[in-house]
């Protein structure tokens, strides 16, 4: 690990001022410190934001509001989360080991870097790590890489599990930076790689995530997260699906579907959602809608299996959601 300067911020304004001067935010550090050890990330200065009052979990009307510094473990076990948005708790438990959940913050989870193996190989081409160097994964070992939202410059998947659930639920986030506060959908945080895959999110310089707001609704009760992976213990998703159904008398009034492990960002499937509206909550409807999930897919040499696995995962997740009493 290369030398760096660490300072501690006691209030939001001080943290933003440090970041505006070139410091990087650090909370749990479960991704950043790891990448610094491998010299993939080389910040000169870090600002510790753990003292900021951004760890609350509260209910505001029908909305669930989660502070950006709330730890994954605290969110997953919080009674209001389990009562109002159980799919968030489910995705967090599936998303990391207990040790990581105890350390990692919600904001940091959303901003974690990709897990393409070539990103961490300093002797391999990676446009995320070294813009313009190329993408070794396109013609290399790419079984875990994306089939949706890829470009000729990057095929890395976004690794967050809870981001998939938040996108499916239409969550928004509030951020603050040198130019003030703004709010926007969590879905809009993530960029497609295009020809600039090193630009991964839409935060402005020095902007700090303050909170995540998850709207409630009748769909929240019938919501499930299903993750398919190589092993049952801590592992990143090959394919995952967060689904939520609003069902009345056996008919689907509305559906929410987002998937992970297959896209360069958490992938909302609005065509599948539209195909389910007004249909019976049964396997035939689920299969017909899930068939649309692979439209535009660009499989690589080793990940063509995801084209078949993705709709199967969606169907099973929808069945699980339909079984909720």
From TrEMBL:
State one molecular function term (GO). Answer: oxidoreductase activity
Highest taxon of source = Bacteria
- Keywords of this protein's UniProt record, alphabetized? FAD, Flavoprotein
Transmembrane segments annotated in the record for this chain? none
Q: Specify the signal sequence span.
A: none
Q: What is this protein called?
A: Hydroxylase molybdopterin-containing subunit
The FAD-binding PCMH-type domain extends over 1-219
Q: Which organism is it from?
A: Rhizobium grahamii CCGE 502
């Amino acid at each position: 690990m290369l030398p760096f300067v660490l300072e501690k911020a006691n209030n939001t304004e001080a943290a933003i001022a440090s970041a505006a001067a070139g410091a990087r935010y650090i909370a749990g550090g479960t991704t950043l410190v790891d990448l610094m050890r491998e010299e993939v990330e080389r910040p000169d200065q870090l600002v510790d934001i753990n003292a900021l009052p951004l760890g609350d979990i509260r209910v505001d009307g029908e909305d669930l509001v989660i502070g950006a510094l709330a730890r994954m473990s605290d969110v997953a076990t919080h009674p209001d989360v389990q009562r109002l948005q159980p799919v968030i708790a489910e995705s967090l438990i599936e998303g990391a080991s207990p040790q990581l959940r105890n350390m990692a913050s919600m904001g940091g989870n959303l901003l974690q870097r990709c897990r393409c193996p070539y990103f961490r190989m300093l002797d391999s081409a990676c446009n995320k790590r070294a813009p313009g160097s190329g993408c070794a994964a396109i013609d290399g070992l790419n079984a875990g890489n994306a089939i949706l939202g890829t470009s000729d410059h990057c095929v890395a998947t976004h690794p967050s599990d809870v981001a998939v659930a938040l996108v499916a639920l239409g969550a928004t986030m509030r951020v603050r930076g040198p130019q003030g506060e703004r709010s926007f959908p969590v879905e809009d945080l993530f960029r497609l790689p295009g020809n600039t895959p090193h630009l991964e999110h839409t935060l402005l310089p020095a902007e700090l995530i303050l909170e995540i707001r998850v709207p409630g609704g009748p769909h929240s009760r019938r919501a499930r997260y299903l993750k398919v992976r190589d092993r049952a213990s801590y592992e990143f998703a090959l394919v995952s699906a967060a689904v939520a159904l609003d069902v009345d008398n056996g008919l689907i009034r509305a559906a929410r579907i987002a998937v992970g492990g297959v896209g360069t960002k958490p992938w909302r499937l609005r065509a599948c959602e539209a195909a389910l509206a007004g249909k019976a909550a049964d396997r035939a409807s689920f299969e017909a809608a899930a068939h649309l999930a692979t439209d535009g897919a660009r499989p690589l040499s080793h990940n063509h299996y995801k084209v078949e696995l993705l709709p199967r995962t969606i169907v099973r997740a929808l069945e699980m959601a339909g079984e909720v009493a």
